[in-house]
């Protein structure tokens, strides 16, 4: 059985880094991720550079990557201006985003939920008219840094709205990493009553160490698409203390051990993780990457 992985490290991961990497490094990372077999890569964001300066070079990065056959490159788009830039870069898929909690949406987008709907609907309709695919993100599904617990009905309403706009898939996010497996299982079990299971995905942060367990809980309900980030990069600039996304290396290792197919070459993926760790100059959170590099170091000493 196959599980789809959406690699979000080049966007969701790098946007939270203090140091801004050169465009060439970002492009090299994206190329290495594609070479490892990842077929959907969120390469950057077309949010106003004043808000996310780490990704101000989205146009340059997307113009210099090697477009691998069979790989979908996508980017976050907040408005029609962002859509124009994405289209000019040759993308055929975009991602829209909003929160399930009012306060986080205001902090993240500077708009209420009600004010956000018409803007995203306009972008979605234009993108679909251009022949582009649209994916939706719902943040703070399992908890908000400002409001605490988020009612299930909030996530249901936002999910339904994004699906009605034409999004082919909705990624439900544990933005601050508070979810537990039971909570994940219960929420997805409710949401699949209203939306086809094939159109829902999981997006888990590992702040409290439950990320991979939450993936398994979602899989028990039939979810087969998950977002992850190379090395466990990530966080949220509007969710203080949030750790990175679940590591792609850790996720692939677990799924392969459970005999699921991903199409990803773990060895090449580890090379991509080692590359970006070296470029950032600090140890990343991926446990599988740490073990791999430690084994390599030990082998080098024995030679």
From TrEMBL:
CDD domains: DRE_TIM_HMGL. GO terms for molecular function: hydroxymethylglutaryl-CoA lyase activity; metal ion binding. Keywords: Lyase, Metal-binding. It comes from the Bacteria. Gene3D superfamilies: Aldolase class I. The keyword Protein transport does not apply. GO terms for biological process: ketone body biosynthetic process; L-leucine catabolic process. The keyword Membrane does not apply. Residues 3-270 form the Pyruvate carboxyltransferase domain. Belongs to the HMG-CoA lyase family. This is Hydroxymethylglutaryl-CoA lyase.
């Amino acid at each position: 059985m196959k599980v789809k992985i959406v690699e979000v490290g080049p966007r969701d991961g790098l946007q939270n880094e203090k140091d801004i990497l050169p465009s060439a490094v970002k492009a090299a990372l994206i190329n290495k991720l594609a070479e490892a077999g990842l077929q959907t890569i969120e390469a950057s964001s077309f949010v106003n550079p004043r808000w996310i300066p780490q990704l101000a070079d989205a146009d340059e990065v997307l113009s210099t990557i090697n477009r691998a056959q069979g790989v979908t490159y996508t980017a976050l788009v907040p408005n029609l201006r962002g859509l124009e830039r994405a289209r000019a870069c040759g993308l055929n898929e975009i991602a829209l985003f909003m929160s399930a909690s009012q306060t986080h949406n205001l902090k993240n987008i500077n708009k209420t939920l009600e004010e956000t709907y018409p803007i995203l609907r306009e972008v979605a309709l234009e993108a679909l008219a251009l022949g582009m695919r649209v994916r939706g993100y719902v943040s703070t599904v399992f908890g908000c840094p400002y409001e605490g617990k988020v009612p299930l009905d909030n996530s249901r309403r936002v999910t339904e709205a994004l699906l009605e706009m034409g999004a082919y898939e909705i990624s439900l996010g544990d933005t601050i990493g508070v979810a537990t497996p039971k909570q994940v299982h219960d929420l997805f079990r409710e949401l699949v009553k209203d939306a086809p299971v094939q159109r829902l995905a999981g997006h888990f942060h590992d702040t409290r160490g439950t990320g991979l367990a939450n993936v398994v809980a979602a899989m028990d309900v039939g979810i087969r698409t998950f977002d992850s980030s190379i090395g466990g990069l990530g966080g949220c600039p509007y969710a203080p203390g949030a750790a990175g996304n679940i590591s792609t290396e850790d996720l692939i290792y677990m799924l392969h051990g459970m005999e699921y197919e991903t199409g990803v070459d773990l060895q090449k993926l580890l090379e991509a993780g080692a590359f970006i760790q070296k470029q950032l100059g600090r140890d990343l959170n991926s446990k599988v990457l740490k073990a791999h590099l430690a084994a390599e170091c030990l082998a080098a000493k024995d030679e």
